[in-house]
């Protein structure tokens, strides 16, 4: 923790909780902190990547934006795990449905993160590295969604480097392999957690299904994101983040 503050995070040791929620949008991080946490203090504003720490039901929780894409979440999650003593990061975001069975408003728990990125190359393993979630977080999230009565699916997501893909058939080929949804960050988060021997999970809300031309309205998105947040905050318990 002696390497704090960093060029990307002005927090000092002790300002960030062991449990961190990471939406992509820093303004969403601000809204979530204000809506769900008590005794909130801002710990970061560098590059407008807002970060806050407060409590939820007496448990310390931090919320910080990750930005878009694997290079961005790769930087922020690396520093949180390795410089700030963070034990668990839960990415909370939106995704496009890929599998034909996936519906709008579904909550997707990313058991694994397929990717078209070269992020894992840095680890120089003699084969293909599979970015996977922490099973403890995954199991608790699945149990919480079931208890709350929210539609949740567990499986592979696709973390893509490409938002506007020139190959219009790519999504169909991922769907053929059972991939549930597409987003842009989880593989890097999982790989950083695996390397640091820490915990990570992605919880996503399906807000559009391009193959069917479906998308949630702004009001519908907010309602569904609230359900995702309830599932994510159920994981903020001391026994999981000690």
From TrEMBL:
<feature type="domain" description="Nucleoside phosphorylase">
    <location>
        <begin position="19"/>
        <end position="235"/>
    </location>
</feature>
<dbReference type="Pfam" id="PF01048">
    <property type="entry name" value="PNP_UDP_1"/>
</dbReference>
<dbReference type="InterPro" id="IPR004402">
    <property type="entry name" value="DeoD-type"/>
</dbReference>
<dbReference type="InterPro" id="IPR018016">
    <property type="entry name" value="Nucleoside_phosphorylase_CS"/>
</dbReference>
<comment type="similarity">
    <text>Belongs to the PNP/UDP phosphorylase family.</text>
</comment>
<dbReference type="GO" id="GO:0004731">
    <property type="term" value="F:purine-nucleoside phosphorylase activity"/>
</dbReference>
<keyword id="KW-0328">Glycosyltransferase</keyword>
<protein>
    <recommendedName>
        <fullName>Uridine phosphorylase</fullName>
        <ecNumber>2.4.2.3</ecNumber>
    </recommendedName>
</protein>
<dbReference type="InterPro" id="IPR000845">
    <property type="entry name" value="Nucleoside_phosphorylase_d"/>
</dbReference>
<dbReference type="InterPro" id="IPR035994">
    <property type="entry name" value="Nucleoside_phosphorylase_sf"/>
</dbReference>
<keyword id="KW-0808">Transferase</keyword>
């Amino acid at each position: 923790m002696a390497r704090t503050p960093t060029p990307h995070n002005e927090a000092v040791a002790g300002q960030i909780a062991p449990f961190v929620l990471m939406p992509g949008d820093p303004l969403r991080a601000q809204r979530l902190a204000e809506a769900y946490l008590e005794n909130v203090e801002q710990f970061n504003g560098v590059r407008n990547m807002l970060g806050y720490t407060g409590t939820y039901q007496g448990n310390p929780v931090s919320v910080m934006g990750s930005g878009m894409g694997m290079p961005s979440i790769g930087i922020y999650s690396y520093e949180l795990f390795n410089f700030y003593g963070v034990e668990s990061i839960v990415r909370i975001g939106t995704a496009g449905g890929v599998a034909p069975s996936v519906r709008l408003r579904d909550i997707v728990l990313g058991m694994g993160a397929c990717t078209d990125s070269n992020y894992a190359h840095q680890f120089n393993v003699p084969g293909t590295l599979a970015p996977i979630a922490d099973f403890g977080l995954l199991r608790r999230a699945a149990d919480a969604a079931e208890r709350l009565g929210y539609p949740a699916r567990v499986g592979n997501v696709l973390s893509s480097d490409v938002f506007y893909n020139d190959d219009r058939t790519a999504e169909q080929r991922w769907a053929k392999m059972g991939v549930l949804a597409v987003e842009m960050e989880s593989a890097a988060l999982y790989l950083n957690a695996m390397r640091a021997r820490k915990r990570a999970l992605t919880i996503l809300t399906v807000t559009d299904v391009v193959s069917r031309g479906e998308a949630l309205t702004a009001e519908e998105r907010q309602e569904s994101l609230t359900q995702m947040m309830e599932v994510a905050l159920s994981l903020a318990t001391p026994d999981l983040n000690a």
